[in-house]
Amino acid sequence: MPAILGAVALLALVLAVVLILGRRRTERELKAARTELDSLRAQMAAIAEQLARPEPATSTKPDRAEYVITHVGDELPGNDRPPAEVRIDRALFADLVLRETVVRTASLAHGLRTALAPETRNRIRFEMKREVRRARKVRRAQLKEARREWEARQRAGLGETGFTSVSTSGSTTGDAA
Q1: What is the phi/psi pair of residue 24, to 5°?
Q2: Residue 24 included in any domain
Q3: Are 173 and 167 in contact (CB under 8 A)?
Q4: 68-to-61, 62, 63, 72 alpha-carbon distances in Å
Q5: 19 within domain boundaries
Q6: Under 8 Å between Cβ of 164 and 158
């Protein structure tokens, strides 16, 4: 009995220590959050004050060329020669090709990693099992339907000929016998 009381007391002590440490950590996080909130409020007040002030006009008369587009898609007059060839340095070309290759390789690796992930394989396995079960069910239903149709044709065919069956002894039974 004293051992049980000692264990309970030890458990209560450990629980109290854990609660105290958790409370201290929560208080520190709350203090940090309040400090961050105060700094964000100060930033927001500064931005609101800046937006409230009207900006001084840069010029009293706006330049028409700034906002009127007059030559979209038109060739400039006097520009009859084709644009000059742009030569790319070997190092720049190699850099561009290498970057494109690295990007393609990285995207391929990511795609393979995603496709071969256990979750994806399990999902594919599940879908395949479901599809196989569905196909079996459809085949069974088609087989039953075909069997019913065949039996119905057999019954309809027997009514026309008059024969029902032939026994193993060789005697026939039915209308023609």
Answers
A1: -65, -45
A2: yes
A3: yes
A4: 14, 11, 9, 10
A5: yes
A6: yes
Q: Are 136 and 145 in contact (CB under 8 A)?
A: no
Q: Are 114 and 120 in contact (CB under 8 A)?
A: yes
Q: Which residue segment(s) compose the domain that 2 sits in?
A: 1-43
More confidently predicted of 57 and 173: 57
Beta bridge partners of 61: none
C-alpha distances (whole Å) from 169 to each of 82, 165, 166 are 102, 12, 8
At 121-156, the pLDDT tens digits run: 999 999 999 999 999 999 999 999 999 999 999 999
- pTM score over 0.85: no
Please check whether residue 17 lies inside any domain of the structure: yes
CB burial string 39-64: b at 16+ within 10 A, e below: eeeeeeeeeeeeeeeeeeeeeeeeee
* Domain membership flag for residue 91: no
Say which range, 87-96, 102-111, 135-144, has the weakest mean pLDDT: 87-96
Q: How far is CA 123 from CA 63, 118, 128, 130, 152, in A?
A: 63, 8, 9, 11, 43
